[in-house]
Amino acid sequence: MSTSRLADDVAEQIRQLIIAKDIAEGARLPSERHLAEMFGASRPIVSQALRTLSLMGLVEIKQGSGAYVMRRPESGIAASVNLMLDLDKPSLSHLVDLRLWLETLGATEGLRHPDTDLAEVRSALQRLKESMAHGTSAWIAADTVFHAAVVRTSGNPFLTSIYEAIHTAVISYEYHDWVNRDLIPDWLLPDHADAQMAIHKPILDGMAAGDDAATRAAIRHHHEVMLEHIERSRR
User: Fold this and answer.
1) H or E stretch including 68?
2) Which domains does the chain possess?
3) Is the per-residue pLDDT at 187 higher than 50?
4) What is d(CA 54, CA 221) in angstroms, rounded to the nearest whole number?
5) Residues 200 and 128 sit within 8 Å (Cβ to Cβ)
6) Using 50, 70 and 90 to split pLDDT, how confident is the model at 234?
7) What percent of the chain is modeled with pLDDT above 90?
8) Which residues face 68 on adjacent strands?
């Protein structure tokens, strides 16, 4: 099996371990050495698997401390999406567009409800702001949680579940080198923190103002920046 396939298998086993052992949010996972022994894998494979779980916003890796559960796994359609991508690589462009449409739909549906509570989105944005100081894994996991919180304002859990599966598949391309080789992309270096916040905060600002056009524009701008990152990663 390829290294990526092995890492994906271990990532799924860790995800199932979190569910089976009912490991709480914020709890520390077993060490990489222990996980490697449990699943009969090498430590580099386990490290790659943990980075994959960060893409999903499930695990936060703290340098020198270990990996921690960021939130509980939910059932989704990620496996089916990844299978489609394996069979049809050119479909990535369609998947990126779908991610944009789903996030836009979730946010604008949230705006339709006058009693929509943005507390979760605000909390997620604050966590995103603080995460840059804690490393790449913390940022990527917090980023996934932020966008999922935006979509969750729609009040439709099925939309959120589908969105998260699509989002994870898309950013697996954006952060391919980080997952597979632990290479940090230049846009996540500490001196780019302000630029990263500048493409996320307007999404919340638009929603808080109840401004449909501004919210759509902010999500579209984030989408365009993501496209640039994906193109750079693929090159």
Assistant:
1) strand 66-69
2) 3-69 (1.10.10.10), 78-234 (1.20.120.530)
3) yes
4) 24
5) yes
6) confident
7) 58
8) 28, 60
- Angstrom CA distances, 224 to 98, 118, 197, 227, stand at 13, 24, 15, 5
Q: Number of helices and strands (H, E) in the chain?
A: 11, 2
Summary mean pLDDT of the chain? 88
Whether 151 and 107 have beta carbons less than 8 Å apart is answered as yes
Specify whether the CB–CB gap between 131 and 217 falls below 8 A: no
Most confident region among 133-142, 182-191, 201-210 by mean pLDDT: 201-210
Decide: 103 and 147 in contact? Cβ < 8 Å.
yes
End-to-end CA distance of the chain: 25
Q: Which residue has the tokens 């549906």?
A: 109
Q: Which residues pair with 59 in a beta bridge?
A: 69
Token pair 């750079």: residue: 232
Q: Are 169 and 55 in contact (CB under 8 A)?
A: no
Question: Is 24 a residue whose pLDDT tops 80?
Answer: yes
**3-class secondary structure, 62:** strand
Token representation of residue 36: 């490697």
pLDDT in tens, 82-98: 545 554 556 788 889 99
**In angstroms, rounded to a whole number, what is the distance separating the alpha carbons of residues 57 and 168?**
9
The angle that helices 157-174 and 212-234 make with each other, rounded to 10 degrees, is: 30
